Amino acid sequence: MNDQSVALYDMTFPQMQDWVVQTLGQPKYRALQLYHWLYQRRVVDIADMTDLPKALRDTMSARGQVMTIREVTRQVSRIDKTTKFLFALSDGVTIETVIMRHDYGISVCVSTQVGCKMGCKFCASTLGGLIRHLRPGEIVEQLIFAQRLLDEEGLRVSSVVLMGSGEPLENYDASMAFVDIVTHPEGLKIGQRHITVSTVGLVPAIYKLAEERRGITLAVSLHAADDETRSRMMPINKAYDIARLLEACHYYYEQTGRRITFEYALIADHNDSVDDARKLAALLQELPCHVNLIPVNYVPERDLQRTAPAQIRTFAEELNSLGIPATVRREMGGDIAAACGQLRALHSPQEVTR
Fold first, then answer.
1. Does residue 1 sit within a domain?
2. Does residue 271 register a pLDDT over 90?
3. What percent of the chain shows pLDDT beyond 70?
4. Same domain, 139 and 158
5. Do residues 230 and 276 make contact, with C-beta atoms less than 8 angstroms apart?
């Protein structure tokens, strides 16, 4: 993308109206036409927007760009058709996106940053640190690319999770612009309740999000029930300990009425004992929530081992018996590099630029 052009998917609907009127000198209704072409018809070429005057299309082609990401590679699971993409951005850096097919619908996991600086010990995304934030449109384009592929099967994305590479609440403005764009009634029309935003526990951002009273689901990466264990696994805990994090989570529930999901990656001999389950239940007893138990993905650089299946079941049963709803996340794409950061790590920058 050159310095003179704008990425059309970066713009919320009000921003697009302003651009159409102030930059292009067109009536405001042209923004509605443009939004329909981008989000409902999902064209990739401005020249195909046939109900816009040709002179306007020519001007827009010179000043705007539709897709700024490029597919580098994809992997498709032979087990469950989970599809993972590696995309190159306009500056050559790469991100990952995953389409997951469930019994209840199709979800897409999008990235919000190139890399991550949070340093969680069980995650491949953080190994190279943070390179940069994504623009709103770079997040949107991941979803549009996935939906365009599903269009060929007559299928529709039913939910979105901001759980790919990066910390969504560190790239707060772009992540929330993404939510505004994809939930707009003239766009993809995905309901806010079908969007989940994950966070390692950036307490100030949780308070900010609570004040906005959005209808989205907040997923908090907890992964331990005591500060000593969590600080070893997640450096963010040294800045915002469990007590401060849960205080923010209570406030979020009070403001939104939305039950919080707590992500808990089970790691053998670290956080997976029955005693750990009991401590976790005591911690969450007074907060309406759901615990999503995750058998940890193997990351060679970390060498953390996943909990045995029988112990995972025991952990889940203990939580449920103590009144904390808990389920074990179904593994998707077990035969491909479906965990965050794994596919990106397999490709060198030289391979991407070819």
1. no
2. yes
3. 92
4. yes
5. no
List 71, 96, 212, 228, catalytic entry: 96
The pTM of the whole model exceeds 0.85: yes
**Known active-site residue 96:** yes
* CB of 150 closer than 8 Å to CB of 99: yes
Q: Which two tokens stand for residue 280?
A: 């976790």
- Cβ atoms within 10 Å of 36's Cβ, excluding its own: 16
**Active-site annotation holds for 340:** yes
Residues 15 and 125 placed together within one structural domain of the fold? no
User: Is 144 found in the same domain as 273?
Assistant: yes
Answer yes or no: are the C-beta atoms of 199 and 220 closer than 8 Å. Answer: yes
In which domain, by residue range, is 229 found? 70-352
Task: Indicate if 196 and 75 belong to the same structural domain.
Answer: yes
78 and 58 part of one domain:
no
Q: Of 24, 41, 65, which closes a domain?
A: 65
Q: Taking CA 171 as the corner, what is the angle to CA 192 and CA 260, rounded to the nearest 5 degrees?
A: 45
Write the DSSP string, 10-67. G--HHHHHHIIIIIT---THHHHHHHIIIIIS--S-GGG-TTS-HHHHHHHHHHEES-
- The pLDDT, as a whole number, for residue 332 is 72
Q: Is there a single domain that holds both residue 97 and residue 24?
A: no
* Cα(284)–Cα(201) distance, integer angstroms: 15
Of 98, 123, 121, the residue nearest 111 (C-alpha): 98
More confident residue, 335 or 26: 26
136-148, pLDDT tens digit by residue?
A: 999 999 999 999 9
Choice among 109, 123, 289, 340 that is catalytic: 340
For residue 189, the Cα-to-chain-centroid distance in whole angstroms is 17
Same-domain check for residues 34 and 132: no
Residue 60 lies in a domain: yes
Are 234 and 106 part of one and the same domain?
yes
